[in-house]
Structures are given as C-alpha cells and as structure tokens.
From TrEMBL:
Substrate binds at residues 26, 127, 171, 302, 415, 422-423. It catalyses: Hydrolysis of terminal, non-reducing beta-D-glucosyl residues with release of beta-D-glucose. The keyword Hydrolase applies. NCBIfam families: BGL. The active site is at 172 (proton donor), 368 (nucleophile). GO terms for biological process: cellulose catabolic process. The keyword Transferase does not apply. Pfam families: Glyco_hydro_1 (PF00232). Keywords: Carbohydrate metabolism, Cellulose degradation, Glycosidase, Hydrolase, Polysaccharide degradation. It comes from Dactylosporangium sucinum. This is Beta-glucosidase. GO terms for cellular component: cytosol. It is an enzyme of class 3 (hydrolase). The lineage of its organism: Bacteria, Bacillati, Actinomycetota, Actinomycetes, Micromonosporales. Belongs to the glycosyl hydrolase 1 family.
Amino acid sequence: TAVRTTEGLLAFPSTFWWGAATAAYQIEGSVEADGRTPSIWDTFSAQPGRIDNGDTGAHTTGHYTRYREDVGLMSSIGLSAYRFSIAWPRIRPTGGHGVNEAGLGFYDRLVDELLGAGIRPVATLYHWDLPQELEDAGGWTNRDTALRFADYAAVVAQRLGDRVAMWNTLNEPWCSAFLGYGTGGHAPGRRGHVGALTATHHLLLGHGLAVAALRAAGVTGQVSTALNAGAVRPLTDDPADADAARRIDGLLNRIFFDPILRGAYPADVLRDTEQLTDWHFVRPGDLATISAPVDAICVNYYQPDLVSAAPDGELDHGTPYPTAQGVRFHPTPGPVTHMGWSVDPTGLRDLLLRIRRDYGDRPLYVTENGAAYEDRIGPDGGIDDPERIAYLRGHLAAVHEAISAGVDLRGYFVWSLLDNFEWAFGFSRRFGLIHVDYDTLARTVKASGHWYRAAIARGAIEA
Ligand code: PNW
C-alpha cells in the first residue's frame, strides 16, 4: 500500500480501485421490461406526497437500454471498478421460486461489457428494491425474507460468480431498517421503532445467509457488505454529550459492525432499547450466521454527525433512532451540499482509523462518497461543478491520509456515476460525475468527471 506525496501530488497505490457507483432502481428505468415485477420503491413512489415532485424511478436515466453507452463513458473516465446493484424483482419476480432468465441476462451482458472494457464489476445484491410481494408478506420484519434473499443470492452467484470482482450483500441496511421501517421516509414507508429493530436483525441475517450462499456457489470475487457508517461526535466534552454520541454511534455503526465482525450485538444497544423490545427475534445460531467471515468491509460515507444531549422533555418524534429521544443533531460548522449535508472529510479519515482500531486491520473500501450540487449548464453545454471537485478532492485526500497511517484501504467509489433518482428527493438532487438531461436522456461528462479522469490517469490528486 505505497502512498507517496511528491511535487504537490498525493499519489495512490498502483493497485487502487478508482470507481463509481449506482443502484438499479435509481438508474435503470424499464420497470416493466423482461418480466420485472414491482418493488417496494415502485409502490412507494406511486403514493402521493412520498417523493418530491411526485417523481418515480419508472423513467430515470434509461440505463437498462443504454448500458453500453454508459460503460463507454466509464471507460472514457478510466474507471478501474464499477459498483452497480442487481434488481431482485428482475431475477425472481415471484420472490420465491423460479428464475427469470431475461432479467438475469441483463446483468450477464452488463458484466461482460464491463470486463471487455477492463472495468472490475462490483455487484450489490440488495440496494433497497425489495419485491413488493415479499413486503406484502411482512417484508424485512418477516424472518422469511432473509431466507428468500439467500435463495436469490444463490441464483445470481451461480450465473455471475465467475466474473464479479466483489460482492456487497446489502447496501446500507441502516437506511432500509431505520428509514424504511422506522421513520417511513423510505420504502416501504412503515413507521415504528420495534419494526426498525426487527428489520435490522433480519437484514443482518439475510447478509449472513447470503454470504453462505455466495461461498457455497464458489464465487471468485471478494464477499463483503456496504454500511453507511459515520463518525459520531459529541458537541462538547460534557459527559451527557458523550453519552448522546455513544447512543447514536451504537444505533448507526456498532449495531451492524459488531454482529458482523464480532458475532454479538453491542450490550449498550440492547440495554438502551430494552424498554422497546427484548430482541426475541434473535434466535440461537443467528449471530454465528451473521458473523460468517467477510473478505473486506465497505463503507459509504457522506458526513459526520455532531450530537448533544437535549434538555429534558425535548422529543423528536421524527427521529430514526429508537429510544434516542433527548439527543439533538447539530450541523457541523462550514459548507453544506444541496442535500444540506456537511462537507467534512475529517469524518471519513476518523471513520477509517476507527474501524481499524476497533475491528482490526482488514481490507476496506469506500463504496460511496460524493455530493449533490445544483449544476449550472454553461453556454457551451459544459457543466462546471467546482464544489463537487473540491468535495471529491478533499475526501480522496482524507483517504490518502488514512492509507498513509496504515489503513488497508483498497478502493474508492464516487456516488454517483451519473445523475439519478435520489430516493425521496426524486430528480431534484444531482450527484453525478455525468449530467443527465431527463428530457432527452443525453449524458454530458461534468467538469468533475473530467477532473476524476485526470486523477485516475496520473494515480494522484493535488495535495
Ligand atoms: C445513500 N441518510 O443513501 C445510498 O446508498 C444511495 O443510493 C444514495 O443515492 C446516496 O447515499 C445519496 O443519498 C442515503 O438519511 C440516504 O442518512 C439517506 C441517508 C444516508 C444515505
């Protein structure tokens, strides 16, 4: 992991994976093609008031039919890896038995196209598009969903296992559980803290069972999962603020890292939530399943959290964090993106150092990092996005700092390759290195995309 700093450049190891990421529902469109059945995001986005401007993913970037053009764009940027997700409702429309060959065929062609362009395929099995019929049977609050997920993983592994460079079982199970079943801000839009904790466990169980399925199929790539981890910081060194940070860290980070990497839920999280649930949904043997060895840990990072203990009686009824009433979130001083998220690369450095300190020296990847900004289209049709360049440069510098400090960080993926359907924000937020005109579906590489190409070409960023 040789990193160097010379002549004003921060150089990365020659083996570093320079990537970009997307997710199926956010980019594909063609929601009724080739036997795909509805997912919870089709249902959720059809409900009035759920998504900004009533947007849906039915017609997004049109990647399903334009994937060759998109791989060509990746090639022109020089990506060495591309992280995409596989839509479960395209593979097993019944959610149970019977494989949909036509759906599988799309990913088969995509993977071959990537390999032909010299780009490593990184496949996420679950980026939030649960088949609606599984939700109708209880979704992630139903233990059976974890078993169905493993069946689906086995099918995909059989077909693509010889060519995918790395697997992510889940993308950000925190969002699936705490936004999907907790606040209801994401599909399926259910609310309730016990449901969120139940979903958390079944997502983790699904991860463990999927790891076993991938191993059983003999996949050649690395097996991992992607967590939206973060640095949680107390506003002051007051013990009450430190305790607020401990509680949020427990429910954001350790509730996932500990079962996967240590085979146990954190004792303080179990204690903090005992007034809500006795965690009876955890059965003997589950934690052994969940802690099956993984080859790497993947983290998606956007911003740190800054928290304090709130005055007695201050209740936040919209909080995703069960029993973390009395915790107040503060903006980090400094700039924010169009999401309102703080720009603070030190949070990424601290997160990477913390994972090594608390969970050991293991291969790590940053599988998402990036920023939404309001793009300006210039007179010549070009798109200047200096804020995005500054965001990416700053966070890659933080990655470089972590590698220099000995963290075994092997790759970085910009969120996102191209503008896309940003969940509850619809098309109102743009994260892409590539601009998408949603009327013509024309793609234009932004200044940030050109900047990334130059960085990849010399294997270094400006210091
Ligand atoms: C991630 N939060 O989502 C997802 O993996 C992507 O699909 C998404 O487009 C990207 O980050 C940008 O949002 C998140 O509320 C959504 O903390 C919400 C949160 C975090 C991540």
